[in-house]
User: Fold these one by one.
Assistant:
Number 1:
Amino acid sequence: MSTASSTDTLPPGLDIKPINGNIGAELRGVALSGDLHPATLKAIQDAVYTYKVVFVRDQHHIDDAQQEAFGRLWGGLVGHPTVPSLGGTEAILDVDGARGERASSWHADITFLDAYPSVTILRPHVLPERGGDTLWGNTVAAYAELPEPLRELADKLWAVHSNLYDYVGDRGSVHKDGLKRYNEVFTSSVYETEHPLVAVHPVTGDRTLIVGHFLRQIIGFGTSDSQRLVGIFNDHVTRPENTVRWHWSPGDVAIWDNRATIHRAVDDYGDLPRIVRRTTVAGEPPVAVDGRRSFTRALGKKPGLAA
């Protein structure tokens, strides 16, 4: 893994400790806020683009307003297109396990939009006594390790992403409230977007795979062949060597490059309470290897819903 900036050039007091060989780092010696010194912000941004996901402990001072203020340092904030933001906030999504919002399959945030978020900031609001970890996978490392014939194929492929995905999937059990919310809120408007399977990252120049559960089908392939191909690429991203797992503690904040990772929450906490609060930063349509950009090809209400 290349490092965006040497630890010798970090602002005084700031320290970065890598967690795994391919992804994840812990950032120490900083109190996140909306008025960070530019050098400190640049160091945090470099760390995120280098390690893909960065964790900052002991940020007990961060509330909803502070979270949004910190997010604005990265760019404009965007809410979820169908799920209302938390009351009193511009763009915080309150993800509550009690409502069945468990995000327990691999995904990048909101890839069913053409300009999906560039960066995500997440903090726990209520934590279960056990379980409820989150995992991230490095889609840049996954692309780089593909055999050359697979990379050449991937560079040419495009795929349809949609919020109308298989909610049940491989879940061992389905939360009834979650399924209801998925049907009535999350997919109240249906989006279909075409993305390249491989995009050129606008900051790092790396090639990154756009995969995860919003990917419905690879264009030009039948359902069966598409599923097999998607499985191959997803498997590379979720190999243990390309992943990191974080056990949350109160005061933690995670910041990740949503264009270079996929993630999933671990649904192992039963009926215990788990609420996390998410802020996402506006992105731009991904650019394929050949220069073409992603585009939304369909947007509409589900049948039977009022306009």
Note: The chain has six helices and 17 strands.
Number 2:
Amino acid sequence: MSLLLNHFQSNLIEAGCDEAGRGCYAGPVFAAAVILPPNFYHPLLNDSKKLTEKQRQTLEPIIKKSAIAWAIASQTAAEIDASNILKAAIKCMHLALDQLKKRPGFIAVDGNRFYPYKKIPHTTIVKGDGKYAHIAAASILAKTARDAYMEKAHLQYPNYGWDKNKGYGTAIHRAAIETHGLCFEHRKSFNILPPQLTIL
């Protein structure tokens, strides 16, 4: 695995933020904020998308135990529909930051969009989850939390294969939507199907 940097700047306590599930058809978007010790290292740690499910599950408790502070937040499909996915994803990051037991002095965010948070300086980093350890850690916590949610949602709505596709628009998921319509967990604002095919 690639060697990740521990921080963007070294003068202030720094939190890494990332989200998971922004492009999904169904389920909430999740985000995490993580403050790691200055010299934290784990050989597996990387962008969650580059890891297997087993590797993410291995790292999740290690990150939670090792972190100075960590938090996870989510926005439901209905909340996504009420604003938009970008605003919902950024709100998730803000909610996660709200929950941190230690206040950061600087925030490093994966991607290229973020809204200022409580006058704390921040930077956005494209593909930051593959460059910085705390952003990678946040990506893993957001992803594992979201996957666990979708596996539970699958038990209530088994037709869509969420235990496998986690709400992403795979061929199986799209075919199931054509057959069964949309359910409560689907993001109606994504215009997946005409409204008349929506079911409760």
Note: The chain has one domain: 14-157.
